[in-house]
Amino acid sequence: MVFWHILHEAIIMIPTQLEDLIHQALKKAQKKGDLPKFPIPPITVTRPRRGQGDYSTALPLQIVKQVNNALKEQGGDKLAPIQIAEIVIKRLPPADFLDRAEAAKPGFINFHLSPAWLAQQAGVIAQQGPDYFKINLGQDKKVQVEFVSANPTGPLHFGGARNAAIGDVLARLLENSGYQVQREYYVNDRGAQMDTFARTLWRRYQQLFGLDVDIPPDGYPGAYMIGYAEKIREAHGDSLLHLPEEEAIPRFRDLGLQIVLDELKTDLALMDVHFDTWFSEQSLYDDGTFARVFAILSEQGDLYEKDGAVWFRASKYIGGDKDEVFVRSNGEPGYFASDITYHYHKFVVRGFDWVIDVWAVDHQNQAKRLPPALKAFGIDPNRLTIVLYDLVTLKRGGQEVKISKRSGDIITLREVLEEVGSDAARYFLLSHSNEARIDFDLDLAVAQSNENPVYYIQYAHARSASILRKAAEAGFAPNSAHLDLLTCPEELALLRKMLQLPEVVAFALEKLAPHHLPHYALDLAKTYTNFYGHCRVIATDPADKPLTEARLMLVQAAKLTLAYVLGLMGMTAPEKM
Fold it and tell me: Can you list the alpha helix ranges (DSSP code H) found in 179-288?
């Protein structure tokens, strides 16, 4: 078990270990006189094209100029990049996970993993389970992911589901990579929109009792407002019917807000999205945070009056000549004021090391301006990352779906989840880069066929579970003692694919691009299916029992890997289908 633990550390750190081995080789080559003295630059090891090894570095191409400049000063002959590659390979220290290193024109070094070492990883994964894939990138740093945050004036539109999927999976990636994560929903519960919402709801409530009143011209006409009014009637009867307007508006604002928040929590739970904090915008004004921010900026000379409003000298921190309204002429804070106050609270009051906001692409200008504005409080703009995502178009039968069949209004998150399920919704919402538009095919999402990637991936997991059940019934059990029997190309290909997962996680986190997970999951399922099609797992000949048990260990490892990546995407891993 101790040996397996060492192997686990090795696979997580293979690119880093190779970079260290290359660095040692360069130092030794310089010491032995194979290469001249020169400052060694950062070394990068990547995955090469298929057929060129498991890892590769282009370092010889990157350092050839430095090498030859140093040789010229010493009166030596020039070296070609391929010669430098051969020198580095000659001086590489041995490593148990490495089978060989090869020089390739014009100056690459390709590394091949040891097949025997690869085979042993089936036992490592099977024994360690999910812990095998966890990487400690965050080192307990405190990170907040704020996402969804739709205005609480109605049900969540399905377009907001993409925000939910991206934010939740980023949080899962962070949690599984050593960060302390807080999920937050920012509730925009103040301002003119909430007053309009409250007036509309009050009028709908009055209409339920036969009063001849109209909703405000700028009100919310959706049928869902009638449903909210009916809930208030059920709870309060006609006791609110004749309230004076100055009492009715705040009362219906509070009642309506609670109804919407309760529905949001219920709908998001259908997608297995949950928040640690539902943060009230109004609280920033009630607890004095806005007043404190106003005072800080005033003392710094960052606020000035013009045209009856108070302006923030955003140009001082952002550049250009555009400043931002901080307090409007009517005394209400501007949008930028609320945003900057909210983020002051995140960093200064609550002390997050890193904040990630998930916003729709139509906020891209604001996303560029907000981070540098935080310099007004001495906050490093790099501590705030804003992830932008593009729109989602629903399609059925190749045609765009714009109107809800149920209500005739917006198409809600709940309505789509009830039709296709959370797993399919999550997968298709995650399967494109954040910046790309999505055509969400409702027909494909519910298809029970291999054309549906969700079905294909989950079926691979269910098939592995079925194999393990049948093996147990037949008296077989996974056995790590004969893992050296795993030598077939399909077996080793499956192991290689499983071992890519930590690197995929690290890359997805580095780029804040969760779409790499569904792509990897589909590749893993295809690789597993290819293994299953070429390698009989449960043998009928008693003489083949050692190979059967070794392959069962591989199936168990594959099952764990499939379950882990599905879990990172917030999807279920069914035992039967």
Answer: 192-208, 224-236, 245-270, 283-286
Which H/E stretch holds residue 437? Answer: none
CA angle 437, 46, 96 (to 5 degrees): 135
Q: Tell how strand 392-396 and strand 384-389 pair up.
A: unpaired
Strands 438-441 and 392-396: parallel
Contacts of 282 (CB under 8 A, 6+ apart): 189, 190
Distance CA 307, CA 377 (A): 26
What the chain holds in terms of domains, given with CATH numbers, is: 2-113 (3.30.1360.70), 192-270 (no CATH), 450-568 (1.10.730.10)
In angstroms, the CA 29 to CA 12 distance is 27
pTM for this entry: 0.92
pLDDT tens digits for range 321-356: 999 999 999 999 999 999 999 999 999 999 999 999
Q: d(Cα 398, Cα 441) in Å, to the nearest integer?
A: 8
1: its two tokens: 């078990």
Distance CA 533, CA 501 (A): 23
The answer to whether 498 touches 557, Cβ cutoff 8 Å, is yes
DSSP 49: S
Show Cβ contacts of residue 317 under 8 Å, excluding neighbours closer than 6 positions: 372, 373, 374, 375, 376
